[in-house]
Amino acid sequence: MSRTELYRPQFHFSPAAHWINDPNGLVYYAGEYHLFYQYHPESTVWGPMHWGHAVSRDLLQWEELPIALYPDEHGTIFSGSAVIDWHNSAGFGPEAMVAIFTHHTRTSETQTQSQSLAYSLDKGRTWTKYAGNPVLPPTNRMRDFRDPKVFWYGPAESGHWVMCLAAGQLILFYKSPNLIDWEACGGFGFGFGHGSVEGVWETPDLFRLPVEGSDESRWVLFVGVNRGAPAGDSGQQYFVGHFNGETFTSENPKPVALWADYGADSYAAQSWSDVADGRRLAIAWMNNWGYAKQIPTGVWRGAMTLPRQLSLAATAEGIRLRQAVVDTSPLSAGQPFRVGSVTIPAGGVYTPEAESGSLWKIQAEMVGQGDGDGCGLRLRWTDGSTVTVTWRRGALLVDRRLSGVVDFNPDFAALHSGPVSPADGRLSLQLFVDTSSLEILAQGGLLSMTEQLFPSAGGTVQVTFFAGDGPVTLADLSIQRLVPARFA
Ligand code: FRU
């Protein structure tokens, strides 16, 4: 299959054709990472939702499989999760892969949402809908009642399944012994004044992570909020706190919203269930509801972020999420261009003599940002499209106003800002440059900024570092050219 169209991601998952949004049903089983996703197989804009399906063994190369879940008499198939039912609690069969998803119907007056099951006994290749669907019927009080995330809580013999569900600006919790019979047990969110509530809450996830350098752990609640994110419209907030098997309590100061990403293009993040080595791995839809239906791609529309490993760091501000992109070394083309240390004088620039290419992993530490204009780097495509990343005082700024095609939506051409405050004055930066995206992890992954870009004619990309009104030293610069991942 040709993957050479303008803007076609070369090392991010995108479907061969048609529309995708949220990642769904992320589960690891028998050596495969499953990625299901909201999919409209007949159009490049959102419509009646199905679950598309792809699998990977290394989280970089993906094989697209036939559609897993089609709409049925209960409705279309909205977002949800998947688990391996190791102890056959539902009675579907040994090691059944069970998908828990929202059935959605809409009339001109209202919409109805309920939660349903489907299972597969052949590694996700074929699916049977549960005959007793829905397992959680709609409630006429709640119009928004969707996106079930299910996991097992507690010991194998005495624990229970937990479902987190988005309902307006609440996350509701249910528990079950068998995935079929659910009992309400808790709630978190609006009314208690937590986090960002400008938009509707969607696609929750909840998991426990150790706090680095201590023997403590915390629960992290991911909540997509479809309006009011730092870069505009939809974005990914998270809460750090405690979960007792029935409900979540946050230890964030109440009105403070923590954001998993300060760029415009990371939404509906979900983590993989059942990862064999215990890593918590997550991926997000690399898009924004503000303009998702208008991005100027070709036969496909939508892509996923790079998968990331999540951890928690104790910082001066409190416990915060740290993200690390999974190992991309299988995509490295030869040796990186490396420089141990280079100082750029005030007002000066430095253009590394790296080979020419269009796919890059760039890493550096910047020491000494200057007081005024700040310092940073510029990516410039052969067609002149430019993105500028500037470290200025406590912020990292990403300017994509001149990044190429920006006029498909008035909100796309913008400058986005995320907080950075490296205690030792050294800012680490890692950038992944694909044909139509830039992912930045700064300060050891405490700040993530994910941005789509549409350089008009593509071409190769050159990086130039610049100093503002004071000198800046680049330490441990590494510029690694990447090759396209294999997509089948
Ligand atoms: C989030 C979302 C979910 C919903 C799905 C529909 O992006 O709005 O809440 O299940 O997309 O495609």
Give me the secondary-structure topology.
Elements lengths: L17 E12 L2 E9 L9 E7 L6 E7 L6 E10 L10 E11 L4 E10 L7 E2 L16 E8 L6 E8 L2 E7 L6 E7 L11 E10 L6 E9 L9 E9 L4 E3 L7 E2 L7 E5 L9 E5 L14 E2 L6 E8 L2 E8 L11 E8 L4 E2 L9 E8 L7 E7 L4 E7 L2 E5 L15 E5 L6 E9 L2 E6 L4 E6 L8 E6 L5 E10 L7
Parallel strand pairs: 1-20
Antiparallel strand pairs: 1-2, 2-3, 3-4, 5-6, 6-7, 7-8, 9-10, 10-11, 11-12, 13-14, 14-15, 15-16, 15-17, 18-19, 19-21, 21-22, 23-34, 24-33, 25-30, 25-34, 26-27, 26-33, 27-28, 28-29, 30-31, 31-32
Characterize this entry briefly.
The protein is mainly beta. It has strands at about 20-30, 30-40, 50-55, 65-70, 75-85, 95-105, 110-120, 130, 145-155, 160-165, 170-175, 185-190, 200-210, 215-225, 235-245, 250, 260, 265-270, 280-285, 300, 310-315, 320-325, 335-345, 350, 360-365, 375-380, 385-390, 395-400, 415-420, 425-435, 435-440, 445-450, 460-465, 470-480.
Describe this protein's structure.
This protein has 2 domains: 18-325, Glycosyl hydrolase domain, family 43 (Tachylectin-2, Chain A), CATH 2.115.10.20; 329-481, Jelly Rolls (Sandwich). By secondary structure, it is mostly beta strands. The chain has a 6-stranded antiparallel sheet with strand order 23-34-25-30-31-32, with no helix packed on it. The chain has a 6-stranded antiparallel sheet with strand order 24-33-26-27-28-29, with no helix packed on it. 0% of the residues lie in helices and 49% in strands. The structure holds beta-D-fructofuranose. Beta-D-fructofuranose (FRU) binds next to strand 1, strand 5, strand 9 and strand 13.
